[in-house]
Amino acid sequence: MNSKIKVLSVFGTRPEAIKMAPLVKHLASRPEFESLCCLTGQHREMLDSVMEIFQLKADYDLNIMQVRQTLSSITSRTILGMEEVIESAQPDLILVHGDTSTTFAGALAAFYHKVPVGHVEAGLRTWDKYSPFPEEMNRTLVGDIAALHFCPTINNLRNLEREAVAGSKFITGNTVIDAMQTTVRPDFVFSVPELNALDFQSRRVIAVTCHRRENYGEPMRNIMEALRELALSHPEVELVYPVHLSPVVRECVFGILKDLPRVHLIDPIDVENMHNLMARCDFVMTDSGGLQEEAPALGKPVLVLRRETERPEAVQAGTVKLAGVEKQRILELAEELLNDKAAYNAMAHAVNPYGDGHACARIAQGILWHFGRLAEKPADFGAAR
Ligand code: UD1
Ligand code: UDP
Prior knowledge:
binds uridine-diphosphate-N-acetylglucosamine
């Protein structure tokens, strides 16, 4: 009964790694747990960079990534690879994070071996199964498999209640806010010379990312056209865009934005460089989930380059606006932030609906409670239910 609880954390993409790293480390620091980590390797360079920054070593690495990989290949290679890992590690609990194909396949592999699953960042929903694609379906299916649901916000928990999802539910805050406690520093020096050369005081620096599958094709072209016009018509603007390594994304981005003045198309940067870029920029334009959570915590307005969001909390708080994927609307909203100081100030206040930096500790307590090692269920983050 006093043996350690063996927790195997499974993740494979950059955002999962950034959000799971503090949890893997937290569990490892506590005597009640044995904390193991299995990378699927759905991403490679972008994943390895996170492991390096957080000084984490994988116990297992399935190394599944292929150039232009398909959803079926990620899913099938993960499920097959996990077989040996689960048989060798014999975990008491498998943790997965969020909504990627690694998340879904990792949870399904755990289910096939009758290992209970804990879902970190549970309960996010758009209620549209094709947007985000395939993430909405991935997280919904993991909701059915999981025994433990670690919801960042009360809104996420209510989504699960609405679906009558079984299992224990906790409101923990998002672990990304835990991660930001160590990455954001006022004296940070970028490791990318182009970023050190930027004058963040006198220039209007906009941080940009865009990678989602449902934006492939026309929506992504519209977004790039809007950015092109913004750069050409605003000499005070510097667009800093670390471009995702997906060849589909890179063809579109470089095809439209290459060699434009004041447009900095750089390779993906490590998470410390990214968080500090956001901390110093004017505002953020993105279709990323993670950036929608991080930028509000830093007091930076966000224009979301999507039709919907599963993160309505910062929209309600007024720091995030849904810009959609039409060129004209995106331009209008960006110009408003550039030209209208009152509109900018109304969005640029720091809010933290997504966490208080103690999500990992709450998740650890939740696991202890689930395994009968704690008498009381841990208190929720934020508002009472
Ligand atoms: C995946 C997730 C998405 C998440 C995103 C974070 C799925 C279906 N999608 O999308 O939810 O928001 O990660 O970034 O799980 N590549 C490299 N090196 C890397 C990473 C990617 O070369 O380190 C290239 C490969 O050619 C790969 C392609 O990018 O085939 C796409 O990667 P993939 O993981 O399939 O999709 P993402 O768009 O990254
Ligand atoms: N990020 C990073 N380097 C970059 C771009 C993003 O470290 O060049 C970080 C970002 O700060 C956030 C995470 O990656 O923590 C978001 O990942 P991504 O946008 O790829 O996926 P999503 O959050 O949309 O699933």
